Amino acid sequence: MSNKTSPLSDGLELRGRMYYARFRVPTRFCSVEPRREVNKSLKTRDRRQARVKLEQMRTQLELQWETLLAEKEGRSTIDSFIQMTNFLESLSLPFRPLQKIVSGPLEDMLARIEKIENFGTTSEAVPAVLGARQLPDVKVSEMADLMKRHHATKISRKNAYQTRAWVSKYERAAASFIEVVEDKPISQISEANAMAFKKHWLERLEKTKLTANYVNKQIRHFRQMIDTYYEMFGVPMSERRNSFEGMNLKNAGSFSNDEGTKLPLPSNWVQRVVSGYVFAGLDKDPQAQDIAIVVAQTGARQSEICDLPPHNIVLDHPIPHVIIGFVNRDDFKSEIKNKASERVIPLVGPALDAMRRNPKGFPKYRGKGTISNEIGRYLRDNNLFPAPTDAEKAEIARRAEALGRSVNHALQRPFTFGSTRHTFEDRMLALGFTNEERAYMMGHSLTQVRGRPVYGSGPDVALRALYMELVSYPTDTWSPRPSDELWAKVDAHLLEMGFELRRPRAQAA
Q1: pTM higher than 0.70 for the full model?
Q2: C-beta of residue 242 within 8 angstroms of C-beta of residue 226
Q3: What would you report as the CA-atom Rg of the chain, rounded to the nearest whole angstrom?
Q4: CATH class of 267-478
Q5: HSE (side-chain half, CA atoms, 13 Å) at 316
Q6: CA 236 to chain CA mean position, Å
Q7: What is the rounded distance in angstroms from the CA atom of residue 418 to the CA atom of residue 99?
Q8: 194-245 per-position pLDDT tens digit
Q9: What range(s) does the Tyr recombinase domain occupy (predicted)?
Q10: Cα–Cα–Cα angle for 405, 406, 407, nearest 5°?
Q11: Which whole-number Å values give the CA distances from 147 to 79, 367, 476, in the listed order?
């Protein structure tokens, strides 16, 4: 057998018939690695296998060195622990504390011992592999910032306002817990602590104007912080302890904030908005006026219109429209409610006029999150919201009681400008739109509407434009075509696309 050594090839060396790893320790790790050179058998005669083993060894050693360097340089315990879990992940091992390893399956312990043998029993990898380190004591007050850091990819599409709002919900939940219990390490939160937190919110619910849904959000946000804590450090699901798991208030409803008690705004009042009368006194803020008109006419969410980037406003198309979707450009970054909200909204009549006055969008309000408060304050300060009828008051009270919230509070503000979306759907329903057609126009989930996976592409922009004209309000200067004519054009368009019409459409009298 030959004992010759082949020339070193990028860290791979052939000695006789066996391959070895041989490479210098990078200078930046010299303070934590006494060896100047790594020189270790890869225990294989196959060059391809040796190359794979070499890269695995490099990765594992560099992660190990990064962990040691983080500790030596005094980086936070969190950073060094994350480096350690990255190192363990390279070995296909989850982090487990020593007591869990000792009491766990024998196969897991043997696998860890085998990994140690690959590094040597004196290696600094031993404490990590054998769980000799404890989870960092991260306090409740630190978790909101860590949520932002750990979920950086998830929130990367949010603009500055949306990011602040996302972080603040965890800051509020953390502050409430500290007020009720104390600022203690996440890993030490007990079931008694969780029950005290829930009791605190139940008492506030009885004494204040809060909704059960709001309380459930506080509980959910705190539960998410605990889940993130364990997720950050690679703790297996089966070994996590989250005392908030499964905790919530029953009968909270599926509505957010006050939505469940709000009624549709009267259609004749919305028509006055579209005609420019309701917001005539807001003449010093023409952008707010035009946002209100577009929202009222199209049924869009206020944030969808005020956050529009210029490139999503398409006025030179045969069918002018705006595009609602996630925007990940740094200059116009914005996140919408969900995937189902992505849609094209055709512009007709006064909505088209409003967007032509604002071809680049609404820079005063884009990404600020202030339009809803601005419009609501103007309407309340000038007593411009319509007064609810007795029947509407009774319905508001019924909804408030069903959602477990204050009837008096619900009656104080029976309408919000966001209720224009409710009115928009009511108009579609009165005109004979199907449930699916309404969902397409509203930006609602077709999966939930159908109760099954969604197939097909949905209505094109030409069909959506006809639908939009059907529900649009006439003004002093513009009127939609008669509904019979528009429905005939809808049917003609569907036939032209190759669809057969099987049932007559129910139309309102």
Answers
A1: no
A2: yes
A3: 31
A4: mainly alpha
A5: 4
A6: 23
A7: 55
A8: 999 999 998 887 777 677 788 899 999 999 999 999 998 888 888 888 999 9
A9: 264-468
A10: 115
A11: 14, 22, 52
